[in-house]
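Follow-up to my post from last week.
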Amino acid sequence: MPVDNNGINDRATSLMANESAMQDGALMSIRDLRVWFELRRFGFGHAGYVRAVDGVTFDLPFGAAVAIVGESGSGKSTLMRTLLGLHRPTAGEVIFEGNNLSKLGTKAMKWYRSEVGYIQQDPYGALPPFMSVGRILSEPMVINGIKSQVERNRRMHKALEEVKMTPVEEFLPKFPHMISGGQQQRVVIARAIILEPKMLVADEPVSMLDASVRVEILKLLRGLQESHDLAVIYITHDLSTVRYFSERIFVMYAGQMVERAQVADLLNNPLHPYTHALLEATSDPDAANAHKYRDVPPGEPPSLVRPPTGCRFHPRCARLIKNLCDQEEPPEFEPAADHFAKCWLYK
Amino acid sequence: MSEWPLLNIENLLLHFRTLKGIVQAVDGVDFDLDYNQAVVVIGESGCGKTSLARAILRLLPRNVRAYSGKVDLAGCNVMELDDEEFRQQVRWVKISLVPQAAMNALNPVLRVGDQVAEPAMVHHGMNKEAAMEQALKMFDHVGVPRDFASRYAFELSGGMRQRVAIAMALVAVPDIVVLDEPTSALDVLTQAGIMNMLKRLKQEIGTSFILITHDVATSSELADRVAVMYAGQIVEVGDADRFFPNPLHPYSKKLMNSVPRLRGDVEPEFITGQPPSLIKPPTGCRFAARCPERMDRCTEEPLMVQTGKRRVKCWLYA
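User reply:
Got it. Predicted complex:
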């Protein structure tokens, strides 16, 4: 793939050109998205930026499930919040069905929020403790002007049946503390789908749940995604759950997307050294694990205020190319079909 | 090796009194641990894992209803000691604990070096310099750079804080360290780094570990032996190299099948139903209601049966 390295903008255009084929049928397109937070000294002096998301480009087709994988501090939560319209992008665009998110007015934003469901990480924290399940589920409908009580009831029943909380009548009057963690997460999911959105954003939806419930919730989400043809962005740090859930996987490191591929391609043939390290560090239950040490890259993820020059992973990388990786930022290469890696090894 | 196992627990019981009734958090637990061995206790949340750690270290809340059983530490029944003797002779010196979320519980106004040195001063009567030297030695073992000793907890990353918490548990050179969910709040790479460090500690200073976790995959990184806990009881104990490929108890099987795997094409299954309430646990086998291999006999409580070197609490093997 010919890539122009003269500057960020040229690279973004070349990427856009490359992906224009994919763009047909994209529900959401993200173009060179940057979200920087200004650091201030003593309240007003400028002291630099935290570059939480720094040049992310991808497309989300209709009805596709993608996973964004990264460690804490990789910018995945900031990316998610920007997609939900909670942060304004510093540069770049988020385009949802042809509408640029940062140009939407208050009313259009309300429409956008009804099209995107959000599944929070901690179900107990996400549910207001003084509202019954029935009220929690009515709230989005009240806000979005579904006035008919009959219609509200119909949707509540349908949503709760879809998340397998039956008999529905039994759960409607209950308060969040009266139901188990798994059931709380089901209510959160029901609330996210009650307005029949086109897209769901799930932020580590199972990390607070018990191992035995995790798989159940993931399968439930997968089922909803298929039956409703929903696009789902699944944000996680746990690679082992990704393959049961999504078709594509994006790996983030220090605010950038370092590898994008189909799930099977990425798991069987990881290209970026960071992805290698992540896979190496993920264990399966096996008694042999106790007798060997895992290969963990030294150091910690870099500060996003002054990220390393060149490739952001180079200070920890075992396959560092001197005078290249530490100086020039790698563009995205495509060494195998539909498998992109932001790494100089594949130039 | 001495003739006594390092730790031998028999019929350990810890019940709490609550407004709703008596919670049987730990209900007749038996297991033993040898020198330089790591046993992992796995199970769902609410099955009494943390209460087991508290019962072993006698860190009891006020609403204890019943606390009994036998805890033999190198041949000496520590249950017979009174609280002050237990504090002086056992806690930190023989058994220490890294509680859940310990890394967030470090004192924010003390330098981490001073915090790590403190148990050595209190329990071994070391003077400040000697204790500090001991603390720095532990920093080397857990992989924290020595100059971090003069930093405060908020200046360290999560992984480094967790290492500091482990250094603190090691500084009085205990025989056993109890780790309660040591890696559950950490990133994948940090988690792997901590597990590497624990393995190295086991080899270098010969500490024994009791690792309490719900994460079966990570637990296999350290385990010599595995104890599966369900509803306040241990339902299976066995060597790791036999347990992981072939769990015996129906609950252990279900638990192993629920683990999502990165390698190999096994579809994970979930365990239907919920663990029983510990207030009025079902009579008979506590797993019977969720068990696919339920029999008529399961209404009676099964005994712990020895099969080879493994023990399992299930009528299938009686």
